[in-house]
């Protein structure tokens, strides 16, 4: 016999959750009313054992990894449109599941639909697929279900994901050109050092004449490239592995993230990007009705930066003790000295790296403008509005800073490549000129 999972309220107002056997949903509701309960929610219930047996033919395909942010953003926007049109949530999910290509998202939607058919809510079903829907996503859906405004929450969530994706796209687009220039420059210089310079060295050796210092340096560099070519891929891989191993520990992860925030030029970009993302996350959660403690905890976990995680954790603890957000945010926005960050500076920027870090050790990761706007938001009861303004401001600053860095980086790269090419040309022609002069004399 079919089963139905229901939630109801008894005569004393106590919430009841149970499962009942009935042929139809109407019969189940009638039976529950005869028991003296007022039905608030009812849905078909599918036994877990049956569900596991059915999973063999559920249409899922092999996939690995997480769902891409672009794909999740498009799904959220489509789901918000379907919900705004008034379609039932299960019908909307089935439509999007059929439309989606085989992969991680389709598999996640199949699992979500099965959970909802078993009687779970949308947030409970999404919480069981963390590779697709993170805690931020699940808690916003949960807040929408509790407030009866799921379509509004989905619209806000879609806008949040679209803004985040737009910022990522701008940064990737700005970085494409310099990365391509550096890659091709390294490839061309490697070809010259490995294949062209040795030919000139054979010619110079045949004349048995003393070479200028610049030419000797160039020849030595060519021989090193030929003898130790395997170090070209090995060195960056070793650096990546070192960072991966050290950041697997909490202390090393904090030091690495602090190094990224304090590094010259690019540190501001990392800092402003993280501030924009975390304030928009917090503002979206507050607007959606998520309790402030839960919102801060989610913001901390989704910040992807150990320095900001520490700051939000201390803000969270201060609020539990009855403090506001602005005061502990200002007090704990300075990470202080960290040995791990100093070692990273010393490794990546020899000699002057330690000096640069000591000059920036007292710098805060949040400036007064952010703290003041949060303070005003708390005073006026419009914290979410102020957090959105902070996020918008820093998004604009990130875009401006990225464009400025790229406009500055392009001529620097051209100048650097010009110096290298000029050095190679001069080093090769100096002995040729010397030989021609000797022969003419």
What is the rounded distance between the termini? Answer: 111 Å
The count of DSSP E runs of length 2 or more, i.e. the number of strands, is: 3
Class by SSE composition: mainly alpha
What is the H-and-E element order?
EEHEHHHHHHHHHHHHHHHHHH
Low-confidence segments? 49-57
Determine the fraction of residues in helical runs and give it as a percent range. Answer: over 70%
Largest sheet report: 3 strands, antiparallel
Based on CA atoms alone, the radius of gyration comes out at 31 Å
The best one-word shape is elongated
Strand content: under 5%
Order of strands in the sheet with the most strands?
A: 2-1-3
Which whole number gives the mean pLDDT? 83
In DSSP terms (H or I, runs of 4 or more residues), the helix count works out at 19
What do you see in this structure?
Helix content is 73%, strand content 5%. The chain contains 19 helices and 3 strands. It has helices at 25-34, 48-54, 69-84, 89-99, 104-117, 122-127, 135-147, 150-207, 213-227, 231-246, 250-262, 266-287, 292-301, 306-320, 326-331, 339-348, 353-360, 368-380, 383-440, and strands spanning 3-9, 15-21, 38-45. Mean pLDDT is 83; it is low at 49-57.
């Amino acid at each position: 016999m079919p089963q139905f999972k229901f939630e109801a309220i008894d005569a004393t107002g106590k919430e009841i959750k149970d499962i009942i056997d009935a042929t139809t949903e109407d019969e189940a509701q009638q039976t529950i009313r005869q028991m003296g309960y007022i039905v608030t929610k009812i849905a078909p219930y599918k036994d877990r054992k049956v569900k596991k047996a059915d999973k063999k033919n559920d249409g899922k395909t092999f996939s690995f990894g997480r769902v891409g942010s672009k794909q999740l953003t498009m799904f959220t926007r489509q789901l918000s449109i379907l919900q705004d049109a008034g379609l039932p949530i299960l019908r909307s999910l089935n439509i999007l599941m059929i439309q989606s290509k085989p992969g991680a998202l389709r598999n996640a939607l199949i699992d979500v639909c099965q959970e909802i058919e078993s009687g779970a809510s949308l947030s409970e079903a999404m919480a069981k697929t963390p590779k697709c829907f993170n805690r931020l996503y699940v808690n916003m859906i949960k807040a929408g279900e509790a407030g009866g405004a799921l379509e509004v929450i989905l619209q806000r969530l879609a806008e949040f994901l679209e803004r985040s994706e737009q910022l990522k796209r701008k940064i990737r687009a700005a970085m494409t050109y310099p990365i391509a220039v550096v890659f091709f420059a390294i490839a061309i210089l490697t070809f010259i050092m490995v294949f062209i310079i040795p030919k000139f060295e054979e010619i110079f050796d045949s004349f048995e004449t003393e070479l200028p210092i610049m030419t000797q340096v160039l020849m030595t560099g060519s021989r090193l490239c030929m003898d130790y070519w395997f170090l070209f891929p090995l060195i960056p891989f070793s650096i990546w592995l070192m960072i991966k191993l050290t950041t697997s520990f909490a202390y090393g992860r904090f030091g690495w993230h602090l190094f990224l925030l304090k590094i010259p030029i690019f540190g501001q970009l990392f800092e402003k990007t993280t501030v924009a993302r975390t304030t928009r996350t917090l503002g979206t959660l507050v607007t959606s009705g998520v309790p402030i403690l839960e919102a801060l905890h989610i913001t901390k976990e989704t910040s992807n930066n150990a320095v900001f995680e520490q700051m939000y954790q201390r803000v969270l603890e201060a609020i539990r003790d009855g403090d506001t957000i602005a005061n502990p945010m200002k007090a704990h926005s300075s990470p202080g000295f960290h040995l791990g960050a100093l070692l990273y500076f010393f490794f990546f920027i020899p000699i002057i790296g330690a000096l640069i870090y000591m000059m920036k050790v007292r710098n805060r990761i949040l400036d007064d403008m952010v703290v003041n706007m949060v303070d005003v938001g708390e005073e006026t009861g419009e914290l979410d509005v102020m957090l959105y303004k902070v996020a918008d401001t820093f998004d604009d600053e990130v875009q401006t800073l990225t464009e400025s860095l790229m406009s500055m980086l392009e001529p620097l790269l051209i100048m650097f490549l010009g110096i290298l090419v000029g050095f190679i040309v001069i080093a090769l022609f100096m002995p040729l000129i010397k030989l021609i002069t000797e022969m003419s004399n």
